[in-house]
Amino acid sequence: MKETTPHIALVTGASRGIGAAIALELAHQGFVVIGTATTDEGAAKISHTLSAYANCRGVNLNVNDAAAVDALVEQITTQHKALHVLVNNAGITKDRMFLKMTPDDWHAVIDTNLNSMFNVTKQVVPDMVERGWGRIIQISSVNGEKGQSGQTNYSAAKAGDIGFVKALAQEGARAGITVNSITPGYIATEMVKAIDPAVVEKSILPHIPVGRLGKPEEIARCVVFHSLSKRSN
Ligand code: NAP
User: Fold this and answer.
1) Whether 92 contacts 109, CB under 8 Å
2) Catalytic sites, residue numbers
């Protein structure tokens, strides 16, 4: 049966920042949202934030753990009979100039920001193909498009995300699955708070036309736009 109204949404990395705003906005729009964090405490925080919305909840998930991802998607599709929207948002930074970058810095960022896309998306696509409808949204980064000094690992992962999205979008189109990437600039979250404030002031803000960091809610609205889009075939 073809469906036109998405209902169940999985948002990775929903404990704070952009993911938390996405989870809240999707819940507000009527989606049943399952948001993930890497700790039970974070999962409980998501459940608390979404407590006004029926069946929305937080769960503990490491997106690098393919078996755990498999188990969670199985649990969601068994309970809700569907998973309509996937938002691959979980991400980390380990910034360092390339000369000083360690293999751990490299692999941690590539695993969490790029390889996790395979882990999670791989599990949700079969159900979407069967249903003839699905929405996959990747939170990439402007630094995957333009590159950023001190972020060879992050820029490589985020550029990889964009390539993945472009290729999977071509595969998914005829099955009614859209795959889109959102590439935020600098957004006011803990990820950006980790940057030296002097660097933000002197090197980042002057390049932002409106002169301020973006807000997580502004990215959440873009995710809702893609999540609610209708079939085009
Ligand atoms: P954030 O505030 O640091 O939040 C990161 C989220 O990812 C948290 O919920 C965290 O969970 C989760 N996470 C980290 N490692 C994980 C793992 N292995 N498995 C599952 N979840 C994991 O970051 P943010 O700024 O909101 O960024 C969200 C996304 O937007 C990231 O993909 C980031 O690269 C991208 N982005 C951010 C900016 C920006 O300026 N902030 C700009 C462009 C793109 P815990 O709380 O449990 O650690």
Assistant:
1) yes
2) 154
User: Residue 125's pLDDT is what?
Assistant: 98
Query: Does ligand 1 have an atom closer than 6 angstroms to the CB of 17?
Result: yes
173: nearest Cα among 230, 233, 122, 127: 233
Ligand 1 centre from 104 Cα, in Å?
Answer: 18
Number of the ligand 1 atom closest to the C-alpha atom of 14: 9
CB atoms near residue 206 (< 10 Å) = 8
Q: Quick one: tokens of 178?
A: 């859209």
Contact 48, 35 (CB under 8 A): no
Going by alpha carbons, the residue nearest to atom 33 of ligand 1 is 91
E-state strands within the chain: 8-11, 32-37, 57-60, 85-88, 134-139, 177-182
Token pair 């472009």: residue: 166
Is the pLDDT at 113 greater than 80? The verdict is yes
Cβ 15 under 6 angstroms from ligand 1:
yes
CA distance linking residue 31 with residue 37, whole number of Å = 19
User: Closest ligand 1 atom, CA of 62?
Assistant: 19
Cα(219)–Cα(185) distance, integer angstroms: 10
Q: Which two tokens stand for residue 94?
A: 């380990």
Residue type at 169 in one-letter notation: A
Q: What is the pLDDT of residue 1?
A: 40
- The pLDDT value recorded for residue 229 is 80
Q: Are 16 and 192 in contact (CB under 8 A)?
A: no
- Amino acid identity for residue 186 in this structure: Y
- pTM comes to 0.96
Q: Please state the atom number of ligand 1 nearest to the C-alpha of residue 186.
A: 40
pLDDT of residue 231: 56
